[in-house]
Amino acid sequence: MLIRSESGLVRGSGVAELVALMQTVLMVVFLWSMNLGQGMSFTVGEVLAPFKRAGVIALAVVLNSVLIPLLYWGLTRILPMGHDFAIGFMLVGFAAAAPFAIKAAVIARGDVPLGIGLVVLLGALNVVAMPLWSAILMPAGTTVNALNIAGTLVVLVLLPLAAGLYIRARWSTRAQKWAPLASKLSSIALVLLVVLMLATSWQSIVSVFGSWVITGSLIALAVSMLAGYFIAMGAPSRRASSLVSGMRAVGPALAIASSAFGENTTVIATVIVLGILSFLPFGVAIAWGKRLRSE
Description:
79% of the residues lie in helices and 2% in strands. It is mainly α. It has one domain (2-6, 13-294): Up-down Bundle (Na+/H+ antiporter like fold).
């Protein structure tokens, strides 16, 4: 059987199946190594320390797991996005707290313990929040299986995170050596995954730039960071909360896009583009860091 790729070339189904297999393997390696490494990077005490500030934690959960997903959904209703663009846009909006936000908090001289606690907590809550919002808010005519989405997130996010925390608690010295290696592996897998998706879905990626997705993403990012800044008290905590709120977790969003909408290249392309844009808060973090160093 023959299929036509987006570049217009005709490929055998065997090649297409090989590409799909490579994407799946790279996705699993990326998410498992990233979350395993994240778990090995921190002790349970470090993760739980910020929970003494119940007020800011509660506000952060409401903001990141409820209000920001609703913001992304609302923007799809206001801006004239196409159906598939809206799906990818919302998947990113539903995915709270990118692990990279911890590094951004370090650069910005923010409250790093708060950033760690929020990233781990919100990442775990994605297992519930993303399937829920996907079932409730997706555009009319979109069929999603919330249980399958939850299962995907449990296997690719929650299990490696829990395994990493266990390894850190059981073999602390080894875990501290293994965590950077896991981080490097996840970065390599992510780069290879994005390159492969760019090569196979480049026309869909180009189409994202002609839609309202970029405008919507910039609006959502600015509003999310501003809201995150004002839910905390004290400048370091505000910087950390702002960065965590602005940086959405592209990994879980991409996993769901691939598993639930795998044949829809527009959805996947939208997630990839917004995942790249989610690094924009690093610019804000660098500016904060430079200003503080000059004072």
